[in-house]
Amino acid sequence: MILEHPIPPFFEWIGRAALNWALAVVAVAALTTVVSYVFLMLRNGSKQGFKIFRSGIVEAFKDVKLFSWRRCGAMALLAIRESIRKKVVVICVVFMILLMFAGWFLDPGSKDPARLCASFVYQATTYLVLLLALFLSSLSLPADFKTKTIYTIVTKPVRSSEIVLGRILGIGAIGTGVLLIMAVCSYFFVSNTLRHTHVLNVGEDIVRLYEDDEIASLPPDTVVASGQTRFSNGHRHQVEEYADGSLRVFEENKHSHSITKEVEDKVVRYRIGEARGAMQAKSPLYGKIKFRNADGFEGAHGVNVGEEWAYRSYIAGATDEAMIWTFENITPEAFPEGLPVEMTISVFRTHVGNIEKPIMGALYVRNPVTGLTAETQTFDSEKYTTKALFVNRKIEKSMVEPKPRLIKKLNDKESFQAPSADLPQKDQYDLYEDFVVDGKIEIWLQCLDSQQYFGAAGPDLYLRAADANVFFNFVKGYLGVWQQMMILIAFGVLFSAFLSGPVAMAATFGMLIAGFCKTLFLDVAHLQSLGGGPIESFNRLITHENMMVDLPNTFQTHLAKAFDVVASGFLSVIGLVVPSFSDFNYYADCVANGYNIPLNSICVHLVTTLAYVAPLFIAGYVILRNREVAKQ
Questions:
Q1: Is there a contact between 229 and 205 (Cβ–Cβ < 8 Å)?
Q2: Which of 134, 251, 301, 515 could form a disulfide with 581 if both were Cys (CB 3.0 to 4.6 A apart)?
């Protein structure tokens, strides 16, 4: 799974993030206060304007003191009833219809059917729930003004803050209920789509290679029968039986099956179980990556093979170059049998050769202090194909290199990282006694084929800890949709507090589009997009000028660029306010790729959601309170 911008640890992130958020809120509040005071003085005179301003400040503090969660709950319940009257159940019906017809178009025989199905249900849910939130939130208060319901509300002892927060919580509760229904239905839809088995007939699909009386004298890992299952869901599996009686169904399309052998009256039958492993919730433990070049120096980057996307760095094959991951908190309690390693390595071929032949690589474990190194695995790798390896706890003497592997210090041309003077000499080495130091261990990867390259980024290799519960991880994936929904609801209620229904809907929809395109929005704001800023781009559009060609040195060009500089500051401020909805797709990506959603990511995104909803609620309260109809 690609993590181009990894989510930082919560306790490292929260301090700086909270400070930046507080500074931004204080700056906006101060600017708003000054502008309001100046406006009141210009409109009512200095003396009367100051009285009105002071009265507003006093009433605001009174609102905080007299705020009632009971009245706020009543406003939320009112919003729920209004939403139900607006046939919100139709969204659920539309979603069910989509699931029913999706089976016609989703191919269960694809290379990764779990990812295909999970991506579909998350995208369908995101679009439907966000549209629901958009309509309910942006039309809530304008509908009350249109039907005169707001006049009945303000005659009661209900404060403006309770009205606004009640709307946000009520519409959020409706959206949460709809989202839970969709989550459960989606899980059963995906599970049912992936559920299948295969048929394996003796004599037709599997062939015995040895007679029964010969098997007892064979080594345990000798293949005594092999074959393939019948087609199901567009694929088949390779099956092998070994001399020790064990059976194996090879993985295909990112899943495998259980298998049992039954013998009755000398008749052999094989039974293939349901698919397993199609949906997973892997808990990866990531390390820090560095690269060793051919001269023995380490650095943050490897070889650049000319790819435009610089996410991965490369090492050359058949050289001393290596990719090195340093892992921490490695304990026998966490990994009692050894280290389960999974990796997705990129392969760059300088010549095609035999295109069907994979590129060979080697995996090593190294003591980060002594330099003691052992080659634990050789493997074949193809581009972006996930490989699962296992480093046993007991390592034979023949696998350990006689000399320690040394690394030259970064930016040091002479000295090496010094190993211990006395390296252990054993017939059998223990992973934790000889290679792990203070919970740290290094894993090295090298490419063995000449003139070929391996490439990787930090998250491309990890240690696989115990898997999480698949169902709860699937439900957690909908937290990303829920967080987007709550932010959009807050924006919709804010806009509905001072705009008419259609205009509030258009403004909320614009914020939604800007949130999904925030990266492009900021590139345009910072004048980093291809074709220049918005005015220059518009000029190119109407004059049919190529984006790669410099505009002629004319007054019109200089004027357009001058306007772009002015617009850049304005757009940059808006860009800081716009939430990045695409960041919340991290949840769906985790589930679709079979990874557990870590608690750290949930905490970061929940705090981010609250950081948007809280000031939007305050802004909505201030605006609604200053509308004539809402004044107490």
A1: yes
A2: 515
- Average pLDDT along the chain: 86
Among residues 106, 159, 92, 170, the alpha carbon closest in space to that of 137 is found at: 170
Tally of CB atoms within 10 A around 110: 16
pLDDT value at 283 more than 70: yes
Which pTM value belongs to this model?
0.87
Encode burial over 61-70: b for 16+ CB neighbours within 10 A, e otherwise: eebeeeeeee
Say how far apart CA 200 and CA 210 lie, in whole Å: 19
pLDDT tens column, 392-414: 999 998 899 888 888 776 565 55
Contacts of 274 (CB under 8 A, 6+ apart): 195, 196, 197, 257, 258
Q: What is the pLDDT of residues 95-140, one digit of tens each?
A: 777 776 776 777 777 888 888 889 989 998 998 899 889 988 998 8
Under a CB-based contact definition with an 8 Å cutoff, are residues 57 and 32 in contact? no
The β-bridge partners of 381 are: 359
> Which residues neighbour 600 within 8 Å (Cβ) at sequence distance 6 or greater?
7, 9, 10
Please state the rounded mean pLDDT for residues 380-393: 87
Give the residues across from 377 on adjacent strands: 363
Q: Going edge to edge, which strands form the sheet with 238-242?
A: 206-208, 223-228, 238-242, 247-249
Alpha-carbon distance of 627 to 488, in angstroms, equals: 23
Say how far apart CA 455 and CA 445 lie, in whole Å.
10
- Bridge pairing between strands 288-292 and 322-327: antiparallel
Q: Which of these, 118, 111, 117, 126, lies nearest to 591 by C-alpha position?
A: 118
Count the alpha carbons within 13 Å of 368 in the hemisphere toward its beta carbon.
Answer: 18
Can you list the alpha helix ranges (DSSP code H) found in 433-478?
Answer: 470-476
The pairing of strands 267-276 and 223-228 is unpaired
* Pairing between β-strand 385-392 and β-strand 338-349 as defined by DSSP bridges: antiparallel
Helix (H), strand (E), coil (C) string for 260-289: EEEEECCEEEEEEEEEECCCCCEEEEECEE
Q: How far is CA 162 from CA 145, 169, 244, 366, 627, in A?
A: 17, 10, 72, 61, 15
Q: What is the pLDDT of residue 462?
A: 95
Pull the structure tokens for residue 393.
Answer: 């706890």
Higher pLDDT pick, 546 / 330: 330
**Token pair listed for 290:** 């560095």
Question: What is the percent of the chain with per-residue pLDDT over 70, rounded to a whole number?
Answer: 94
Backbone angles phi, psi at 502, to 5 degrees: -60, -40
Residue 426, pLDDT score: 82
Interatomic CA distance for residues 126 and 45, integer angstroms:
50
pLDDT at 631 over 60: no
Q: Token pair of 400, please?
A: 């350990």
Tens of pLDDT along 572-617? 878 878 899 989 999 999 999 999 999 999 999 999 999 999 999 9
- Residue 269's contacts (CB-CB under 8 Å, 6 or more residues apart) are 202, 261, 262, 263
DSSP state of 409: P
Q: Does the structure show a pLDDT above 50 at 630?
A: no
CA distance 624 to 629: 9
Closest CA to 258 of 267, 249, 250, 266: 249
